[in-house]
Design a protein that fits this description.
Strand content: 5-15%
Largest sheet: 6 strands, parallel
CATH topology of the largest domain: Rossmann fold
Order of helices and strands: EHEHHHEEHHEHHHEHEHEHEE
CATH class of the largest domain: Alpha Beta
Distance between the termini: 41 Å
Strand order of the largest sheet: 7-6-5-8-9-10
Number of strands: 10
């Protein structure tokens, strides 16, 4: 059995599930998800995959984790064992992502293992994209305002533009790690798309639309989408995925909004700086063909 630890927000949960699906498919063994991290999540995030998407992931119980990890199964022990200096004491079944960029050794993990990490690269599941797309079929149809916006998207050369602020601004730790994309990035991206897309119509998604309206000037038709809040936030990702082209933030949420668009001719512009002054290689997070600036 492959058990994948699920944590953080919806975009990160999707990367984790996709990696787990790929490993279980390669090994020919079932996969379950460990959602125990949410019991003490300081940001009060929740496991969202089974609520948002149509293909439910089976939950791993304590007995499943204990069978694979033995005495290292308690959450506090796993946290200690995840430290770099503890690698020699770690069971081979406890697989900790060693760094942010793609780790090819995932292809050699045991058929019984517990995977802990973020796994933020398409390379982890590239052979199984069809299954991943099926898994990430949205469970509920768009209704009301969202249905009207989806109809509008279908009639124009729609470009999604995502500006994430929220905890990237309000939480000091998150702000120090991620930072926010500056207006200059979006201006360059808009100019790049406008030169390549006939009559672009921008659909702007943000959790801080007042900041967007004050700081970003778009000289093209645009629609500001700000009504999906709280448990309905995932509808923004659904709407993004319906657009033809994309300008994403340094956010796994809008990464998936762009990736879920299956059009091979789509243009996706992403920020070259994914983290704020963190010296880590981030090239593997961008699928082939995506433009960084």
């Amino acid at each position: 059995m492959i058990i994948i630890r699920i944590s953080d927000g919806l975009g990160n949960q999707m990367f984790q599930l996709a990696a787990g699906l790929a490993v279980s498919a390669e090994r020919g063994v079932p996969m379950r998800v460990d959602i125990s991290c949410f019991a003490d999540d300081r940001m009060q995030r929740r496991f969202e995959l089974n609520r948002v998407f149509s293909c439910a992931a089976e939950i791993a119980g304590k007995a499943n984790v204990r069978r694979i990890l033995g005495w290292q199964h308690p959450h506090r022990v796993r946290r200690i064992m995840s430290r770099r200096g503890m690698a020699m004491l770690r069971r081979k079944e406890l697989v900790i992502e060693p760094h942010f960029h793609y780790w090819p050794e995932i292809n050699h993990v045991p058929s019984d293992c517990y995977l802990a990490g973020y796994w933020q690269s398409e390379k982890y599941f590239q052979k199984h994209t069809d299954e991943v797309r099926v898994r990430f079929t949205f469970k509920h149809p768009l209704t009301d305002n969202n249905a009207e916006i989806a109809e509008q998207i279908s009639r124009v050369n729609a470009v999604s533009l995502h500006i994430r602020r929220g905890d990237y601004v309000s939480d000091s730790g998150t702000r120090a790690k991620h930072g926010v994309c500056l207006p200059g990035y979006y201006e360059k991206a808009i100019h790049y798309l406008a030169k390549r897309v006939e009559s672009p119509h921008f659909f702007v998604f943000s959790d801080d639309m007042d900041w967007v309206r004050f700081n970003l000037k778009i000289s093209h038709p645009c629609c500001f989408v700000a009504h999906n809040r709280g448990e309905e936030s995932y509808n923004d990702m659904h709407l993004m995925s319906l657009c033809r082209h994309h300008i994403i933030a340094n956010s796994s949420f809008s990464w998936w909004g762009a990736w879920l668009n299956p059009d091979k001719d789509k243009i996706v512009v992403a920020p070259e700086r994914w983290f704020n002054n963190h010296p880590v290689y981030t090239g593997d997070i961008f699928p082939a063909g995506w433009i960084t600036m």
